[in-house]
Description:
CATH topology: TIM Barrel
Radius of gyration: 18 Å
Oligomer: single chain
Structural class: alpha/beta
Order of helices and strands: EHEHEEHHEHEHHEHEHH
CATH architecture: Alpha-Beta Barrel
CATH superfamily: Metal-dependent hydrolases
Number of helices: 10
Largest sheet: 8 strands, parallel
Mean pLDDT: 95
Number of domains: 1
Strand order of the largest sheet: 1-2-3-4-5-6-7-8
Amino acid sequence: MIIDAQIHLWAADSPGRPWPRSGGSPADRGRTATPQRAEPMTAAEALSAMDAAGVDKAIIVPPSWEGDRNDIALAAVRDHPGRFAIMGRIGADPANAALLKRWRTQPGMLGLRVITATGAPACDEGLGHWLWRAAADHDLPLMIAPVGNTALVAAIAHAFPTLRLTIDHMGARIHHHGAEAFGDIEAVLALAPLANVAVKGTALPCYSAEARPWADVMPYWRRLLAAFGPRRLFWGSDLSRLPCPYVDLVEVFRDDLDWLDADTRAEVMGKAVARWHGWAV
């Protein structure tokens, strides 16, 4: 079974369902965020791509440009039973902690996704942010996009050793390629001894300046596998920004890498991400 550890689904910005306006820097205030592509990724398109590439299931990560909403993902789970699960978003208001007691009663909901960008409460409040303790108390795993703040992820992992944390996209730097993209790799590898930290080995071609099999960045994936092991490294695509055919990414990991034995391949391409997040598949 092949499970993609991250895809985005979203709907268009519209008067009936507007995206939030940025509250970030003065230059960005009042603007909508920029999506990965002009056309929304629908559940139907994702399923068509998954079926063509031989991907059985996928975890939906609601994208940041839609704000803290999960309705599109919940609808996909409802309409396509067994194909999707969700790592949902939640607003920064501490009052939202009350929602976590029943978070996993929402169909398909496995945990939460957080972006620790500088300027966001999850970053600026550090260990004092309410979410870390609340998620640990309710045994809700987190996927964290560190955005250069790997030290904060390390501090959270040490402070809350029962809280399962997954570092998004290998901790790579978005919009960079090759060695520049993996400038934080040593900090990520340093977290491997912590049993509550895993890594999403997702979106690998997005950080490469080369064509398949992405030889300039594949060594970083291998180092992560050696450090974290096959039960804490999760394959996936980030489909809507993938710069190559989906089937190419699947084929390379499923068929072409002679350093992946059958058991390791089964773990990193599906078993491990389901087990870590408690998804009964």
